[in-house]
Design a protein that fits this description.
8% strand, 2 domains, Rossmann fold, three-stranded parallel sheet, two-stranded parallel sheet, 56% helix, binds tryptophan, binds iron/sulfur cluster, Tyrosyl-Transfer RNA Synthetase
Length: 326
């Protein structure tokens, strides 16, 4: 029997290369080996975006079209929207009752977000419970493994301790303890060399238009010591060159020596990189535009996913309710 995994993504914006290499490429290969549940975590998105929720609905369809465009398949994996499977909230409620408050208050991601996110008020009851809902997401499907980046490890630890607490309280092991499947490329470099992130504005969208890719690449910083074409460049100090390694490997060495010998200018160097990026993303962009022309296909996949997810969720929840006598 295949091992079961579950992972989720919050629909808080358009997806970019960081999502592609940090999660989606990984999901894509996992779906060949595991029984996969891939979830749009819209309740989790609402926890931080509750003051302007309108975009969430749009992002759901947009993000799922990106998932499908990059090769996640509704045939191989169960693709669904969290809020369409109400059992998540029931299990969330039950876990809320047994989760120690201190565990949530001490959670490093919670403290960090409270400190760092300034334009939203996150000092709410719901937001404190964010990892409890995530535990419900995972344990509702008795997932054995959860592909996540390092930033999510505290939530997985919390999930495991909720599972243990439940088992100790009610003397039955319904859930097991899920393992983290650490995603390697968690820090995909942005256009400025920092981690690619929407909030840094240093990203390239998975379905970004070619002219916008050209513009963004042209605005990348290069070797600061290179002012005129005749100044020899230092490709090792230039993020454009790092991107060559990622997207145009066959040209990397040629660019490196041309840059050092002042034989190529930064504008031309970036133009060629952007071209390579456009070419790399083109098949996904085409598939996505195709999907968005007739959204019925997307809705059908989500409806099918909902059905399968709900069947699995209902089974677990009835075991839980029977055990606690509710
Ligand atoms: N908290 C996760 C994130 O921000 C999203 C998420 C919600 C998730 N539920 C999940 C991830 C369950 C893995 C498993 O990335
Ligand atoms: Fe960077 Fe290319 Fe300019 Fe060299 S030529 S500094 S690698 S952008």
């Amino acid at each position: 029997m295949k091992k079961r995994i579950l992972s989720g993504m919050r629909p808080t914006g358009k997806l970019h290369l960081g999502h592609l290499f940090g999660a989606l490429e990984n999901w894509k290969s996992l779906q060949e080996e595991y029984e996969c549940f891939f979830m749009v975590a819209d309740w989790h998105a609402l926890m931080s975006e509750y003051a302007s929720p309108a975009a969430i609905q749009e992002n759901i369809i947009d993000n799922v079209s990106d998932w499908l465009a990059c090769g996640i398949s509704g045939q191989k994996a169960v693709i669904f929207v969290q809020s369409q499977v109400p059992q998540h909230l029931e299990l969330f409620m039950i876990f809320s009752i047994i989760t120690p408050l201190g565990l949530l208050e001490r959670c490093p991601t919670y403290k960090e977000q409270l400190r760092e996110i300034e334009n939203r008020d996150l000092s709410t009851y719901g937001f404190l419970g964010y990892p409890v809902l995530q535990a419900a997401d995972i344990l509702l499907y008795k997932a054995q493994a959860v592909p996540v980046g390092v930033d999510q490890l505290p939530h997985l630890e919390l999930t495991r301790s909720i599972a243990r607490k439940f088992k100790n309280l009610y003397k039955k092991d319904i859930f097991g303890e899920p393992q983290a499947l650490l995603t390697q490329a968690n820090r995909f470099p942005g256009l400025d060399g920092r981690k690619m992130s929407k909030s840094y504005g240093n990203y390239i969208g998975i379905s970004e238009a070619p002219d916008s890719i050209q513009k963004k690449v042209q605005s990348m910083f290069t070797d600061p010591a290179r002012i005129k074409l005749s100044d020899p460049g230092h490709p090792d100090k230039c993020n454009v060159h790092a991107y060559y390694a990622l997207f145009y490997g066959s040209k990397k060495e040629e660019i490196e020596s041309a840059c050092r010998a002042s034989k190529i200018g930064c504008t031309e160097c970036k133009r060629q990189l952007a071209e390579a990026l456009v070419k790399f993303l083109e098949p996904m962009r085409e598939k996505k535009l195709e999907l968005l022309k007739d959204k019925k296909k997307i809705y059908d996949i989500l409806a099918q996913g909902q059905k399968k997810a709900q069947a699995a969720a209902a089974k677990t929840l009835s075991e839980v309710k029977e055990l606690i006598g509710i």
